[in-house]
Amino acid sequence: METVGAMLYLSIILLILGYIKFRIDRAMALSDYSILKAVIEHNHSLRINTEQSFNIVFLDTKSDLFSEIDAQITNANDRFIIVLRSPEWLFKLKSNIWKQHSVIDGKSFYLTTANEGLVHYKKSGKVFFYSKPLEFLDYQNAKTRFLSRLKISGKG
């Protein structure tokens, strides 16, 4: 009977710890959301037009997906705002390579929940944070290619 009591006690402790972790993760995500919303609405450093939808890519060279996201950004036809956390030499190099994008030094931004992410801002003022930017960029690039093919075939 003592074994059942100990198991029940451990289960309750695990449940409480899981709930605490959930609340902490949620508070961190809410903090990131609030920071992002404030940065976008007071966009002195980003120099963006909030009358249009736009995407901000947060990218860190320490990310496991850096090279894949780099390839997606380099080949993208859409314009992105890229907040890059990297050594100074790489930041300068990427700023020259990504001419169609706005590249911002990531040392002035800090997200608590991820090394990389993508923020999609709708002109209605809604902010969406995607913790897996590679999937979003794949989708966005495929959508752009599809729409450009429709425009080309519609003219002919």
Describe this protein's structure.
With 156 residues, the chain is α/β, with parallel strands linked by helices. It has a single domain (2-155), classed as Glutaredoxin. Helix content is 53%, strand content 16%. The chain contains four helices and five strands, in the order αβαβαβββα. It has helices at 2-41, 66-75, 88-97, 133-155; strands at 54-60, 81-85, 102-105, 117-121, 127-130. A five-stranded mixed sheet has the order 3-2-1-4-5, with helices on both faces. The chain is elongated and about 80 Å long. The model has no long low-confidence stretch (mean pLDDT 80). The chain crosses the membrane at residues 6-22. Keywords: Membrane, Transmembrane, Transmembrane helix.
Distinctive features:
156 residues; alpha/beta; Glutaredoxin; five-stranded mixed β-sheet; 4 helices; 5 strands; elongated; membrane; transmembrane helix; transmembrane
Between the first and last Cα atoms, what is the distance in angstroms?
80 Å
Computed CA radius of gyration, to the nearest angstrom: 21 Å
Strand order of the largest sheet: 3-2-1-4-5
Count of helical regions: 4
| Helix residue percentage | 40-55%
